[in-house]
Design a protein that fits this description.
single chain, alpha/beta, seven-stranded parallel beta sheet, six-stranded parallel beta sheet
Length: about 325
């Protein structure tokens, strides 16, 4: 089976720091290669893979302001589609635009829907509903207007994360600095709980950061360490008493939630989106409705077994599990 993986090109695959879609595309590619599949990754020229790499852009457009994002996307997608006949199956991780080529090629296409940026994009998915094969990354992130071949949870290379049985006494916020991710709520919970809060992540909304986050940073109780890479991520997640994930949107998955639990770190999350699929309430963390419940949950974190969190994450969100499920999807598509 010859497989083409189409990664996004905002960032390198795998990303140096932020880039969840690129991260999943990389984890899948490397897992398939390890199982002996002939895999070609379509990504940026500086991407790293044990498979074959094809590229048309030197770096991600989010890492090089001289690149026009739309031009880069068009050249990137067309490069794969013009070579579609070389592959048995195409796995699209690049949102809805590649679907518009699907009627022009004979190679079947699997598309992992990593979330809906807006309801306005659903008509594109609906147009190709009968001919393309959609995979959701959680049951909660399914549109009632679309058909799906499977739900496959995002996988993690477990060897990249260390289990920490005796953490430090700080809470962690790890994610985009954006209103929908609830950084300001994490600060409020930490202050009212009397806990130190370490914050890490890409500043995606500058106004929100300067207005609601920066004034609270004192480098003592509230600390911001920037957008961190894999080694820092491992240490921050593993040594935290708990991860605060107080989102105010229906998040389709949440890689940091699974990664934290893999290290043994329980998660306190607002019960929206996929959180009830990722977290076992009262075992690997707490599902809460508001700040008051989050404060109470923080008090109860020491009652949880960090080993239980790690075991759950290993079972549900490993690279091996994700790869096996996608292989099954490919086989179903090709047999039909």
């Amino acid at each position: 089976m010859k497989i083409a993986i189409l990664a996004p090109i905002a960032w390198r695959t795998p990303p140096r720091k932020y880039g969840p879609w690129e991260q999943v595309a990389s984890t899948l590619t490397e897992g398939l290669v390890e199982k002996g599949f002939d895999v070609t990754l379509f990504a940026t020229a500086d991407s790293i893979t044990k498979g074959k790499l094809r590229h048309c852009r030197p770096t991600g457009y989010a890492e090089d302001s001289s690149l026009d994002p739309k031009v880069a996307e068009c050249l990137h997608i067309s490069q794969l589609m013009e070579a579609a006949d070389e592959f048995d199956i195409i796995h699209n991780h690049f949102d809805f635009l590649p679907l518009t080529y699907s009627g022009l090629i004979s190679t079947p296409m699997v598309t992992t829907i990593h979330g809906f940026s807006s309801p306005k994009i659903i008509p594109v998915y609906k147009k190709y509903n009968a001919t393309c094969h959609y995979v959701s990354i959680s049951d909660s992130d399914r549109s009632s207007e679309l058909d799906y071949i499977a739900t496959v949870y995002n996988g993690i290379v477990t060897a990249q994360f260390d289990f920490i049985s005796n953490p430090d006494d700080y809470l962690l916020y790890f994610g985009r600095i954006h209103p929908e991710k609830g950084a300001h709520l994490a600060i409020e919970v930490a202050k009212q709980s009397g806990k130190r809060l370490v914050m890490a992540g890409l500043v995606q909304d500058e106004h929100y950061f300067t207005t609601h986050v920066l004034p609270q940073i004192d480098d003592q109780q509230i600390q911001y360490v920037g957008n961190v890479g894999p080694s820092e991520r491992n240490q921050l997640l593993g040594n935290a008493l708990g991860l605060l994930h107080l989102i105010n949107f229906d998040e389709p998955f949440g890689l940091s939630v699974a990664e934290a639990m893999l290290c043994g770190t329980p998660v306190v999350a607002i019960n929206k989106g996929a959180m009830s699929e990722l977290i076992v309430h009262n075992k690997t963390g707490f599902l809460v409705s508001n700040v008051e419940e989050a404060i109470e949950a923080v008090r109860n974190i020491p009652q949880l077994s960090r080993a239980d969190s790690a075991q759950w994450a290993h079972t549900m969100f490993s690279q091996e599990n994700m790869v096996d499920r996608y292989i099954h999807v490919y086989q179903r598509v090709l047999s039909s």
